[in-house]
Specification:
Rossmann fold, about 15% strand, about 40% helix, alpha/beta
Length: about 900
């Protein structure tokens, strides 16, 4: 069977004490100079994280003469934007001609890059590209920009409209807000806007949030209207005026969603001109900019509610492919934030993500989710007994409830493993499991294997009010989470936790960021063994995220202590009534907006403020980003959408997308079937998709990966297929293998993420047998993804290059992430790649990877198989270690 080994990756950099201090000429953005001592910079190879304190600066007539005068080891040029200007390039060229090391340093990012001949050429091309773009933009400005004709190109029309919005950003203050308790707090009419006509939802966190916030906002104005894309029955129950606009399309393709902006704008502009609202409060939905446009043109205060990027959520939890016009969606979202008077978010993590993208921190308010204690309220004895009777249960049973999505980070693995153990230790336990999701098969399999179906009720997703009613039967509610969430900052504010609290029952939950904060003070599982335990202000029992033993101990211990359940429930409900009602949620946000008067337009730094925890300061931060990214977002997992299917089918769906839709060229180019009987090493196999191909073809395979999450999934993939393999946690820059071990070293999209790629190549050379082969894929600079998607669309049209280097833009956007991780991403040119593998022989380079929707429209008549060889995103190098 397969073997798993664990070896700590080499995360620490060499001890600075062993290095000598060297002097560098530091050149500011104004080309003043200073002397900067450093023990680390000379060891850099490509792009690295480092914080440099700007030295005392002075003018100088000759920078190169200063190098000789001060016996400097190199030159560092400070960058305040994403690309060098002409003066920087001229200086860079002179420095490189002398043979001195040259570095570019971005203070906002705390990142430095080694600038060699290849990187200088890339920067020079970027300078020319941006110069040409600016000349073109200036020519365009000579002509007045009008709304594009209906027959104009789709992208051009939307880009033109978004450009007008961007050029006229001017947030409107919401003035005249009265103090809390005044009725009304705001004179005039309020509008709640939500235009996702395609989302026919009837329950859940988003549904409840909309209805309850609208209900409370309506109390603060003279009149209030909800303008909706689809009908929300609960708004009618609350007696709110709801206008459901006719859907702009019978379809919800992304082009229909974007086109809907013009429809909604035309339908609403006249009404808002005649009956001008005091404000528009919009729950931001993908692709929406009609609200932004109306508020900007009619000078209406714009309040934006944002609960995380649904653009990313679609890519991660939807069809896995994202939007074809994703950049239009991103620009629309960013412009809404820039035009917003104030932004209402549910967690600090979401606020930090906005600040990291250049949004003014001072207008973002962190406002956790809440509950309505009049709706989510403990049931009477008659209510509880009646509901339990309907399920065949009675008051002798301990009912344990879970409400939510059966998805990855919700801890469904923990719940599935815990159910039979809880049932064994608490024979009178019963389980109410409300919701659905792609991991519900784990729960079903657990119930099947242990014959527990008669002890569980799984009604699926229920309407909001029906869910609240059924929750009355529960004695204990649970909110477990996957242990991987403990390695990165949790970004959510689960509505269900507040609803649990309002129900006045016992709660067992993960001690995780906002969940732990809201449920504190709290008991620990070990406290429940104390016979003389007294509850003072505690609200719940908190466990380590993903710890099944602690979770089971907490639920079992609490189930045996009805007195503790009652005391915790009273405290939790009181906390909701005192702090976490929807009325308090709206009051806090209006108090915040009221305090913005006169301060909204003060300048703030563009970059995020970050602080490195003491225990992480000696870890290479770029390698930590690699671990955080792929421990929490397994590569390729976003492309599986099956619900209720087996794990093997889940892996097969990932692979079907990978080899049939994403990269049909891989099987042939990567030679999966050509290495029977050989000893194959893959560096970073992710979920093991490619490695299984080598194993199925008869190779002896080894997986080396820094991510424990990846290794776990790859091993599971092998186990499900009865394949053998060795799985090792380690660092490719320092491989734990003897010299001359492998016939083939294969790595696909990995070594461009590590700081010292050249060191990885040296290690590959070392562990290959003489005559052994390497097949390695890296991202290509000469690709449409780089020059169009990253440089043009994100860097120039979104303005990101004004603040960020292209390296930082790639770290933030290339890899799919919901964790906030920003792994290093690098691109290469064929000549540069060949030079990096110069110790190898028989070197060949292939250009691949382009999907049918990616080429420019003018070229889509050509076969993708041809275009990818010119503008594809992947460079694959194949080479051999010399025989002697």
């Amino acid at each position: 069977m397969d073997e798993t080994k664990s070896m700590e990756p080499k995360l620490r950099e060499p001890d600075a004490a062993t290095k000598s201090v060297q002097r560098f000429i530091y050149v500011s953005d104004m080309h003043e100079i200073g002397i900067l001592p450093s023990t680390r910079i000379s060891a850099f190879t490509e792009r690295h994280r480092i914080k440099l304190d700007r030295p005392a600066l002075r003018s100088s007539s000759g920078i190169l003469s200063e190098v000789e005068k001060n016996k400097a080891s190199g030159v560092i040029i400070e960058m305040q934007r994403g690309w060098p200007n002409r003066r920087d390039l001229m200086l860079s060229r002179r420095v490189l001609k002398t043979g001195l090391p040259l570095y570019y340093y971005w203070p906002r990012e705390e990142a430095a890059e080694v600038i060699n001949g290849h990187r200088f050429l890339s920067m020079a091309w970027m300078f020319l590209y941006i110069t040409a773009y600016r000349i073109f933009q200036n020519i365009q400005r000579i002509r007045p920009i009008e709304d594009a004709d209906e027959d104009a190109d789709f992208e051009t029309r939307h880009e033109t409209r978004l450009k007008i919005l961007r050029n006229n950003i001017a947030p409107i203050p919401l003035e005249g807000i009265g103090p809390a308790g005044k009725n009304p707090r705001i004179k005039g009419a309020g509008v709640y806007l939500r235009t996702d006509y395609w989302a026919d939802i009837r329950s859940g966190g988003s549904y409840g949030h909309t209805c309850y916030v609208a209900k409370e906002l309506a109390k603060t104005v003279d009149s209030f209207t909800c303008i909706m894309g689809s009908h929300f029955e609960l708004l009618d129950v609350f007696g709110l005026h709801q206008v459901v606009l006719d859907p702009p399309s019978a379809f919800a393709h992304e082009t229909d969603i974007l086109e809907a902006n013009f429809y909604y704008y035309d339908r609403l502009k006249f009404s808002f001109e005649i009956f001008r609202p005091a404000y528009i409060y919009e729950r931001l939905v993908p692709g929406s900019f009609a609200g932004t446009r109306l508020c900007q043109e009619l000078k209406i205060p714009y309040l934006v509610e944002y609960n995380g990027s649904e653009i990313v959520m679609r890519r991660v939890f939807g069809d896995g492919k994202g939007f074809e016009h994703e950049l239009l969606f991103q620009v629309a979202e960013r412009l809404a934030f820039q035009q917003a008077t104030a932004i209402n978010v549910v967690s600090e993590a979401i606020r930090d993500s906005l600040v990291g993208n250049g949004i003014d921190r001072k207008k973002i308010f962190v406002n956790p989710n809440c509950a309505d204690p009049d709706v989510y309220t403990p049931g009477t004895s008659d209510e509880v007994n009646g509901l339990r009777h309907d399920l065949g249960w009675d008051d002798n049973h301990i009912v344990i409830g879970f409400v939510g999505t059966f998805g990855g980070w919700h801890g469904i693995e923990v719940l599935a493993e815990a159910l039979p153990r809880i049932a064994e230790e608490v024979p009178n336990a019963r389980f109410l499991l409300i919701g659905k999701g792609n991991l519900q098969n784990l729960i079903i399999e657990s119930l099947d294997c242990h014959n527990l179906h008669d002890k569980a009720h799984m009604p699926g997703m229920l309407p909001q009010q029906e869910t609240a009613h059924l929750m009355k039967i529960c004695d204990i509610f649970v909110s477990p989470h996957h242990r991987d969430m403990g390695t990165t900052k949790f970004f959510g504010s689960p509505t269900k936790v507040f609803e649990y609290m309002a129900m006045g029952a016992g709660i067992v939950a993960s001690d995780l960021e906002q969940i732990g904060e809201v449920l504190s003070p709290a008991l620990r599982p070990s406290d429940l063994s104390q016979t003389d335990l007294e509850v003072s202000g505690q609200r719940a029992v908190l466990c380590k995220p993903g710890d099944v033993d602690e979770f089971v101990s907490a639920v079992v211990g609490l189930a045996k202590r009805p007195d503790i359940i009652k005391a915790l429930g009273v405290n939790a409900r009181q906390a909701v009534i005192g702090q976490y009602t929807w009325s308090r949620h709206v009051e806090r946000f209006l108090d915040f907006a009221r305090g913005l008067d006169g301060t909204l337009y003060e300048e703030t730094p563009n970059g995020p403020e970050t602080e490195t925890p003491a225990e992480d300061r000696d870890i290479d931060p770029l390698k930590k980003e690699i671990i955080d990214q792929w421990d929490n977002d397994p590569c390729g997992s976003h492309y599986a959408t099956l619900e209720g299917e087996s794990r093997l089918e889940w892996f097969r769906e990932v692979e079907q997308f990978r080899y049939e839709e994403f990269g049909p060229w891989m099987a042939e180019t990567m030679e999966f079937a050509n290495h029977e009987g050989e000893n194959v090493l893959e560096i970073g196999s992710g979920m093991g998709a490619d490695l299984t191909r080598f194993a199925l073809a008869g190779a002896t395979v080894t997986d080396l990966d820094m991510s424990t999450g990846h290794l776990k999934l790859a091993r599971e993939n092998f186990d499900l297929r009865n394949l053998e393999g060795t799985f090792i946690r380690g660092d490719a820059e320092d491989m734990p293998f003897e010299d001359d071990t492998f016939d083939l070293v294969y790595t696909n999209g990995v070594i461009h993420h590590t700081p010292n790629t050249l060191q990885v190549i040296k290690e590959i050379y070392r562990v290959l047998k003489p005559g052994g082969k390497v097949i390695c894929m890296v991202y290509a600079e000469n690709s449409i993804q780089y020059w169009r998607n990253l440089v043009l669309w994100q860097g120039l049209r979104q303005g990101q290059l004004l603040d960020l280097s292209i390296g930082e833009i790639m770290s933030r956007s290339v890899e799919i992430s919901e964790t906030g991780a920003r792994p290093l991403v690098k691109v290469y040119r064929p000549k540069q790649l060949k030079e990096m593998f110069r110790d190898f022989t028989d070197t060949r380079i292939y250009h691949r990877q382009l999907m049918p929707h990616e080429p420019p429209k003018l070229l889509r008549w050509l076969p993708v198989s041809l275009l990818q060889k010119i503008m594809g995103w992947n460079l694959i190098i194949k080479a051999r270690k010399p025989l002697s």
